[in-house]
Amino acid sequence: MLKRTLDIVVALVGLNVLLPALAIVAVLVRRSSPGPVLFRQTRMGFQGKDFTLFKFRTMTVRSGSEKGAFDVGDGSLVTRFGRFLRATKLDELPQLWKVIRGAMALVGPRPEVRQWVEDYYLTADANDFNPNQFYFRLVFVREPYDGAPPD
Q: Which CA distances in Å does 134 have to 46, 95, 110, 137?
């Protein structure tokens, strides 16, 4: 209960203090390339529950068959401003809203894409996925996250 209360208080204060910066980043994302300001993706959270994750968009918008693809690490789809957002982690700030709503916590395991959990985690059933247990391959620990699942 204390952790949840602390999450809410810190997220509310953070959103209020950072609101002008969030507005500026939103305008700069909009001007950097065509497309929506926010990137939305369904992620799998605690006890296998899906929720929609929001981030500032850092990549160019793709169409058709490219939709759903991910950046393979070469950065070819990342906008110039998107590189800055990723380097400073400013692209993550919209997630404070999900902390307030209770879908995420400030400190905790990274919510993953359901397909990645089903394909790469060692659990038998993705619905039994518990991010507090370490059922993943060591590559997730040893390799820096570059937006692509391991080989």
A: 13, 24, 12, 9
Q: How many structural domains compose the chain? A: 1
Q: At CA 77, angle to CA 73 and CA 83, rounded to 5?
A: 75
pLDDT in tens, 68-90: 555 555 567 889 999 999 999 99
Structural domain boundaries enclosing 106: 2-113
In a domain, 121, yes or no: no
Contact 110, 50 (CB under 8 A): no
Q: What is the pTM of this model?
A: 0.70
Residue 59 falls inside a structural domain: yes
| 138 inside domain | no
Whole-angstrom distance, CA of residue 36 vs CA of residue 121? 31
Please report whether residue 83 resides in a domain: yes
- Tell me the range of 4-8, 111-115, 124-128, 136-140 where mean pLDDT is highest: 4-8
Task: Concatenate the DSSP letters of all residues of 6-49 into one string.
Answer: HHHHHHHHHHHHHHHHHHHHHHHHHHHSSS-SEEEEEEE-GGG-
Instruction: Provide the residue type at 44 as one letter.
Output: M
Angstrom distance (rounded) from CA 126 to CA 107: 22
